[in-house]
Amino acid sequence: MHGWSRGVELVSGSTDDLTDVVRAGVAWGRGKGIRDLRAELPFLSYDEEAEAYERGPAALVELQWRLTRQPAAEAPEFPRFGELLEAAGAEPRLRRLYVYSSHWTLGFGSGTGHPYEIEVALSAPAGAYRVLTHPHGDVIGEAGTARDAVAMAVGHLPAEPEPDAPHAPHAPHE
Prior knowledge:
The chain contains seven helices and eight strands. By secondary structure, the chain is an alpha+beta fold.
């Protein structure tokens, strides 16, 4: 079984005992948190993303930034992506947004659940850095440095986008 909330898998597990499945469904429907679910039903498991999700959007955004930095650190043969990620991470308005990467492109969203509400994206192909409407979307503009691309991206953000708050711990109807 799997327990999802707003596009994020919070718990999963497998059991041959249908009574446990019913108990899990009842506890989930009553809004129990993932740690309480796991304590009551040891067949369930959860991960770091689920824990961050329950702590709120700021915790999930921080985790996602850390996880997004790993591919850059593991790909020294493509330093432009790492430069772009570091420049974006140094910009407070982008740092507050949910970040993810796809094909060496960074997307920045104001939502923390799927589908993401993309505000702007950055890519680092050979040549100029690009500011995009969303990953693999229309080009807004190009810049010669990662910092200039970040500044251009910030200029295209809505007034003050903030990640939306997930329901705590999850919506009972989900």
